[in-house]
Design goal:
The complex is a heterodimer of chains A (76) and B (110). With 76 residues, chain A is of the alpha+beta class. Chain A has helices at residues 16-27, 41-53; strands at 4-8, 33-38, 57-63, 68-73. Chain A has a 4-stranded mixed β-sheet, with helices on one face. In chain A, helix 1 links the parallel strand 1 and strand 2. Chain A starts with a strand and ends with a strand. Helix content of chain B is 41%, strand content 13%. In chain B, helix 5 (71-77) links the parallel strand 2 (65-70) and strand 3 (91-93). The longest helix of chain B is centred in the middle third of the chain and has 11 residues, at 52-62. In chain B, strands 1-2-3 form a 3-stranded parallel β-sheet. The chains are: A alpha+beta (76), B alpha/beta (110). At the A-B interface, helix 1 of A face helix 4 of B.
Chain lengths: 76, 110
């Protein structure tokens, strides 16, 4: 299993969490993961959709108390 | 926002900024005069949501987004490229060139 980096994007409006995720993905190695914390409802749907579109990998998404934890694996 | 999200989602985007729109990208336009989008524009500012310049910048940094300014708009204003905000524009183009480059894409006009 690769390394996991956490990005706290709580409080950021859409598309902030997505943009932070994309910026983060550029900095990590293939196989590594990023966990984005987002309080934005839209991003909870948008990020998995983006991951599918650009062919990275969704590891999981869980709703916590007031925010979502979205884990993505860099696939390319 | 459409342009930036598309650009970071494997959809190359070219933005052509002409006439009145070019005024919003002038360096000497104060931030509060940059957008005239009405009630929502004011609300976004109030809530500190990222503005259009920031979104275009992110689109360029993280995706495939090119921005062109209309060469005629520059001529009419008597502006050079350095009159526009730094780091956004890839150059000045005529509409003929832009339309030809964009021929096989989809157009969205605002």
């Amino acid at each position: 299993m690769g390394e996991r980096t956490k990005i706290d994007a709580c409080g950021a409006y859409c598309p902030g969490p997505l943009m932070e995720l994309i910026a983060g993905l550029k900095l990590i190695n293939i196989g590594d993961e990023i966990e984005v914390l987002s309080s934005d409802k839209g991003s909870a749907k948008d990020i998995p959709e983006w991951v599918k579109k650009v062919h990275h990998e969704m590891v999981g998404i869980t709703q916590q108390d007031g925010y979502w934890s979205i884990v993505v694996r860099k696939a390319k | 926002m459409i342009a930036s999200i598309a650009a970071v989602s494997d959809r190359p985007v070219q933005v052509f900024v002409s006439m009145n729109a070019s005024l919003a990208f002038a360096k000497d336009t104060p931030a509060d005069k940059r957008y005239q989008g009405g009630a929502f524009s004011r609300l976004l500012k109030e809530k500190n949501a990222p503005d259009a310049l920031k979104l275009f910048q992110q689109g360029k940094e993280l995706g495939d987004l090119k921005m062109w300014v209309c060469s005629m708009a520059l001529d009419v204003k008597g502006w050079e490229m350095d009159h526009l905000v730094d780091g956004l524009f890839d150059g000045a183009l005529g509409l003929t060139k832009f339309l030809s480059d964009a021929e096989n894409g989809q157009f969205i006009t605002m």
